[in-house]
């Protein structure tokens, strides 16, 4: 498991916080600030650093070779910075020759204070500029003022759709747009109507849903860019853990924007065997070196599946062009080989440490650190820039005993190398994929070993690869009937356990086998990433490995939420208690003097009888409490 190093510290007198070390960055977080941080996404930040660094290196080479008059150092915008950890890591770990300035924007006042404090803590006062504002409005404002960014990074909590339109406008022509989406339930087909409303595409449920989620997001980014005369070129697209992450180059060209119809397609997926077919949104025809665009004709299938007799579900449109750039992936793969693994061993158990803080005496035994900048940051104006006094920043770093971490050292390097290796082997011109277990599930047969299945496809004269989105994926350019011929041959050559015959299975097995099937294993059917034992698909390293709770937007919103929480329930309770109090006064029996004297002479007060009970204000009681203290009858039960 690779994640940041956490420990409890004292930020200032009486103020406890957390010290986090991840990559080359060390940040402090106040416990009561509510700044969002998720250690699970350490891989996200690691791979983003490597991809951006490679992109900026490629950008600089392009400027030099083509003798462009562009600024060689880039400006980066992190539109939703939260704790600022990502921006700080970019500033520390990206090559200095590539970076001019990093703008860390967030709408939360607490987040901006955290960014300012941690930027000073790491000696980055001249490189990171905090900005408090709404991400959408800020990107629109930058575009209107002609201030563009070479890299725009979007890592929102949940859906990224509302940030895409301003982002494709705020990025420089030829710039890099990095987008994360964590709403996988929507993108993977649980609520297709919501996916259509947010991303403009209908999602489908299937074994290929994670790759389809990537293609839906790319389609949405392309559509947003096309509206402003721009188009995208995906460099790397990754589905991992509970989110997807894409890195696309955004360029301007009115002519190339017209090609977008041929990059998108509607998907027809069979409900029985999960065969899929594509209907392009448009076609392009080149005649005498002139390109003409025409409407696509369809549908590509009839109402009934030829393979199993099932019906089709329609989804999309999705991006059907390559989701990776082969050249860029190979460059990234080569650069990752030069990096080293950052071993994070013997880390303190944060949860155990936090539980041990039962008193101030126990807390004092832990290595406490005092940060002067934490006290000073609260006095700074929100719109003021970070202090440019580098000496003060360096002194702040020395106070926490910060140790320098070399660039190119990542805690998740082995996983990064494994995923990039699998991506480099993917068939880029083949959208979506089959899965090993689904093919066997449809026919109620035992599973075909992956090597035999891949060998059979290659022996039939077709290409095959895996997809990084699914460990049992089979991505191939073979027609669907070839895949099912291989499965029919496998089932008929095996002793299948008798089971209830399904109509789907009977129909599929009734077709004749037209393909020459050969299961002889081939050495080239074993992917290089299998041979070198790369970390291709990582299991969840711990429980609850997933998204965290959303951070609060602002102090005002949080205070309003607490003030209004349970408002309706309180009104109902007050009304019920008021009615109960009035009813008690009406039903209270009259007492004569003899009764009062007899009660007064008694040394034991009956249960539930007290003057306090009848005088309590019902407004301060919950409904169950009001019922509990309701006065009982003064008549004594017979002995």
UniProtKB/TrEMBL annotation:
The keyword Phosphoprotein does not apply. InterPro entries: SAM-dependent_MTases_sf, Trm1, tRNA_met_Trm1_C. Its EC number is 2.1.1.216. It holds the Pfam family TRM. GO terms for biological process: tRNA N2-guanine methylation. GO terms for molecular function: tRNA (guanine(26)-N2)-dimethyltransferase activity; tRNA binding. It is an enzyme of class 2 (transferase). Keywords: Methyltransferase, RNA-binding, S-adenosyl-L-methionine, Transferase, tRNA processing, tRNA-binding. It comes from the Eukaryota. Residues 375-395, 530-639 are annotated as: Disordered. It catalyses: guanosine(26) in tRNA + 2 S-adenosyl-L-methionine = N(2)-dimethylguanosine(26) in tRNA + 2 S-adenosyl-L-homocysteine + 2 H(+). SUPFAM superfamilies: S-adenosyl-L-methionine-dependent methyltransferases. Residues 376-389, 574-587 have a biased composition (Low complexity). PANTHER family: N 2 ,N 2 -DIMETHYLGUANOSINE TRNA METHYLTRANSFERASE, TRNA (GUANINE(26)-N(2))-DIMETHYLTRANSFERASE. This is tRNA (guanine(26)-N(2))-dimethyltransferase.
């Amino acid at each position: 498991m690779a994640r940041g190093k956490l420990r409890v510290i004292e930020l200032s007198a009486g103020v406890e916080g957390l010290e986090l070390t991840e990559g080359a960055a060390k940040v402090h977080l106040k416990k009561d600030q509510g700044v969002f941080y998720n250690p699970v996404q350490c891989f996200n930040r690691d791979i983003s650093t490597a991809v951006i660094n490679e992109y900026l290196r490629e950008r600089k080479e392009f400027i030099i070779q083509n003798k462009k008059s562009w600024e060689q150092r880039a400006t980066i915008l992190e539109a939703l910075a939260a704790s600022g950890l990502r921006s700080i890591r970019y500033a520390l770990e990206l090559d200095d020759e590539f970076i001019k300035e990093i703008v860390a924007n967030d709408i939360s006042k607490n987040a901006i204070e955290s960014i300012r404090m941690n930027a000073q803590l790491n000696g980055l006062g001249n490189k990171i500029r905090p900005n408090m504002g709404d991400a959408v409005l800020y990107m629109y404002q930058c575009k209107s003022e002609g201030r563009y960014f070479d890299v725009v990074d979007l890592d929102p909590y949940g859906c990224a759709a509302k940030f895409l339109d301003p982002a494709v406008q705020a990025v420089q022509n030829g710039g890099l747009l990095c987008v994360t989406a964590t709403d996988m339930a929507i993108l993977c087909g649980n609520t297709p109507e919501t996916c259509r409303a947010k991303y403009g595409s209908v999602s489908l449920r299937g074994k290929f849903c994670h790759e389809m989620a990537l293609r839906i997001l790319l389609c949405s980014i392309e559509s947003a860019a096309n509206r402003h005369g721009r188009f995208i070129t995906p460099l790397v697209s990754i589905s991992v853990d509970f989110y997807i992450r894409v890195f696309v180059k955004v360029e301007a060209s009115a002519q190339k924007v017209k090609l977008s119809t041929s990059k998108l397609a509607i998907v027809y997926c069979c409900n029985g065997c999960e065969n899929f077919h594509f209907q392009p949104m448009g076609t392009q025809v080149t005649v005498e070196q002139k390109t003409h665009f025409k409407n696509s004709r369809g549908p590509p299938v009839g109402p009934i599946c030829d393979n199993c007799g099932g019906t089709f579900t329609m989804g999309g449109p999705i991006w059907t062009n390559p989701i990776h750039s082969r050249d860029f992936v190979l460059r990234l793969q080569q650069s990752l080989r030069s990096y080293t693994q950052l071993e994070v061993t013997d880390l303190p158990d944060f949860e155990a440490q936090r539980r041990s803080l039962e008193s101030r005496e126990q807390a004092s035994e832990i290595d406490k650190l005092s940060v002067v900048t934490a006290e000073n940051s609260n006095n700074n104006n929100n719109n003021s820039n970070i202090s440019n006094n580098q000496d003060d920043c360096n002194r702040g770093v020395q106070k926490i005993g910060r140790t320098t971490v070399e660039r190119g050292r990542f805690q998740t390097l082995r996983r990064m190398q494994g995923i990039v290796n699998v991506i480099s082997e993917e068939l880029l011109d083949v959208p979506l994929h089959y899965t090993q277990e689904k093919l066997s599930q449809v026919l109620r047969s035992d599973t075909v070993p992956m090597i035999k299945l891949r060998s059979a496809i290659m022996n039939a004269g077709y290409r095959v690869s895996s997809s990084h989105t699914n460990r049992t994926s089979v991505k191939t350019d073979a027609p669907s009937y070839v895949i099912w011929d291989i499965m029919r041959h496998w089932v008929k050559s095996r002793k299948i356990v008798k089971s209830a015959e399904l109509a789907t299975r009977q129909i599929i097995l009734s077709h004749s086998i037209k393909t020459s099937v050969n299961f002889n294993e081939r050495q080239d059917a074993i992917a290089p990433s299998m041979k070198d034992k790369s970390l291709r698909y990582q299991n969840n390293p711990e429980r609850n490995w997933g998204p965290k709770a959303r951070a609060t937007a602002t102090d005002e919103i949080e205070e309003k939420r607490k003030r209004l929480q349970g408002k309706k329930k309180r009104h109902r309770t007050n009304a019920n208690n008021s009615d109960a109090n009035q009813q008690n006064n009406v039903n209270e029996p009259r007492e004569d003097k003899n009764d009062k004297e007899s009660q007064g002479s008694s040394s034991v007060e009956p249960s539930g009888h007290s003057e306090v009970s009848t005088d309590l204000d019902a407004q301060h009681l919950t409904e169950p409490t009001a019922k509990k203290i309701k006065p009982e009858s003064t008549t004594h039960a017979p002995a």
